[in-house]
Specification:
The protein has four helices and 13 strands. The chain is α+β, with helices and mostly antiparallel strands and 213 residues long. Strands 3, 4, 5, 6, 7, 8 and 9 form a seven-stranded antiparallel beta sheet that branches. A hairpin with a 4-residue loop joins β12 and β13.
């Protein structure tokens, strides 16, 4: 197997932690929404950070739909942290860790930085030391966040039948009116070939059957 020099080298322990953390946090349900987690290619390390006793840290970018940044003043920061307590508790339960506030910092600790979002209501960044012991809960199934996953796909639409002598008279630039009836089509996505019909009036694909490609 040939090496792929353009791919960044990732420590095996960090790679496993990435997988576990994103899976555990994505789909966590709160009373007013669902969490989705991802790891940015270029981590956002801007402060301020709430550091925890176990070496983890948390930065808040948005809360209750409004921008927020932890204040350097401990009293003001405590009020902000209290507002984020439901989110912090959900993260604790999902990862099986205790996040006990310890100090405020302008810089995150070394390690993995995970971006956590609750729709447009909240955006947090969680910094985790790679060696931190986790007891992750079983990931939840949340179809709501599947819409944010980009998948390459191809839609092949069968055109209308046309007589050979009519087809022979077509030239570049000619318009062929196909009408509003649904057309047989096939969608290829994620290794699957999905048969169905395409509705040109509504631009919707209606599934008939799903099979392996």
């Amino acid at each position: 197997m040939r090496a792929m020099p353009n791919l960044p080298a990732v420590d095996p322990d960090e790679a496993e932690m990435r997988r576990v953390v994103v899976a555990a946090l994505s789909g966590v349900r709160l009373s007013d929404g669902v969490l989705a987690a991802r790891i940015e290619r270029v981590p956002d390390r801007r402060g301020g950070w709430l550091c925890f006793a176990n070496g983890a840290a948390l930065a808040i970018d948005r809360l209750d739909g409004a921008p927020l940044r932890l204040d350097e003043d401990a009293i003001t920061a405590a009020t902000q942290i209290e507002r984020a307590e439901p989110l912090i508790a959900a993260i604790e339960a999902a990862l099986g860790v205790a996040l006990v506030p310890d100090a405020l910092s302008a810089e995150p600790p070394a390690g993995l930085i995970v971006t956590i979002e609750q729709g447009t209501a909240a955006r947090l960044r969680l910094a985790l030391p790679v060696g931190l012991s986790l007891l992750p809960a079983r990931p939840s199934f949340a179809p709501e966040i599947a819409g944010a996953v980009a998948l390459p796909m191809t839609l092949a639409v069968d055109g209308p039948r046309i007589a050979p002598h009519d087809a022979a008279s077509l030239e570049p630039g000619d318009l062929l009116l196909v009408g509003g009836a649904m057309l047989p089509a096939r969608l290829a996505v994620a290794g699957r070939s999905i048969a169905g019909r395409y509705d040109p009036a509504t631009h919707r694909f209606h599934i008939h059957s799903i099979g392996a490609s």
